[in-house]
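User: Fold this, then the next.

Assistant: Folding the first:
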Amino acid sequence: MKLFTNIYDYIIDLAHRENVTRYLYGLSFIESIFFPIPPDVLLAPIALTKKYNWIKIAFYTTFYSVVGGLVGYVIGLYLYELSILNSIIKESVFLEVKNLFDKHGVTIMIIAGFSPLPFKAFTITAGYMSLPIILFIASSFIGRSLRFFLVAALFHYLGESIANKIKKYFEYIGWTVVIIFLFIIFSKYF
């Protein structure tokens, strides 16, 4: 059974569809607030198609991610005490991120924006900690720009060779991630 290869093929097919950028920008927006799937999953294959200007899609992916981050910031600023937030960000994660903010300041927003860490945890925590809004926007824009422009450029210019390697090993990568995830769950609860 080629479960992950089928998912890969579906995403590549989706990247060729009309108006796919709307999905990309929507994904960028919601990922900064609550959604677990990063926009890179769609950004990379869209840049690979060369159907769109990679600079433009990287910019708008960044823009909508930062706007979504502002929503996360407002949630953290005004609503963090509500129990509904536990479904968005666990208290243990919040405390870890808060410690990172205490230790590294605004630099952690740039790192979080660039890294595969869950950006939503940082946007909500930044709001809770009342990080100055200008610093929040600037650091989010820098981190997200670095990440999304890098992904878009790599897949635009080196896409075919990267895509072929990813597709070749995608099934193994997918199952490895599932096994690691199950191991983490198992070791945490059993």
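Now the next one, as you asked:
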Amino acid sequence: MPIPFSDPIWQKPPAAPAFQSLFPGGQGADVVIVGGGILGLSTALHAARFGLAVQVLEAGDIGQGASGLNGGQVIPGLKYDPEWLLEHFGSERGEILVNFAASTADAVFELIRDEKLAVPFVRNGWIQAAHTETALKAAANRDRQWRNRGADVRLLSQTEIAALTGAQGYL
């Protein structure tokens, strides 16, 4: 059975209900964050550290999306490699982005330390396995770029990846 169309989102309803605070006891907030994922909770934490009264609104469970579905992995970096960032943003802004990408995992572990969270973790690297020749070339290029910047990276062989992960078929 087809679902009937609703009114257009831009159309004002004939009688909008009066706003009612969802906060207990009429409590107010300096900042209301919509979404209790990685970005929302980080924003809420930093706003609270500046002394703001913060409320987080989340329709589902806190951390239900990317926060909970990443398998507990903390991996530094961005989608783009250093050379791409420098080419597209120039040396000054590009360097800022490259340094940010290199330090993103550090921020997570600093948060655990600063907030004295009882979170067991191990920092022992990560594997970006290639499943095609194109992906292998991209991984080799990424390895070269980060190695040239002094990062402790190493391109693994097919045998090393299989031994470390138990997975067969990566290049």
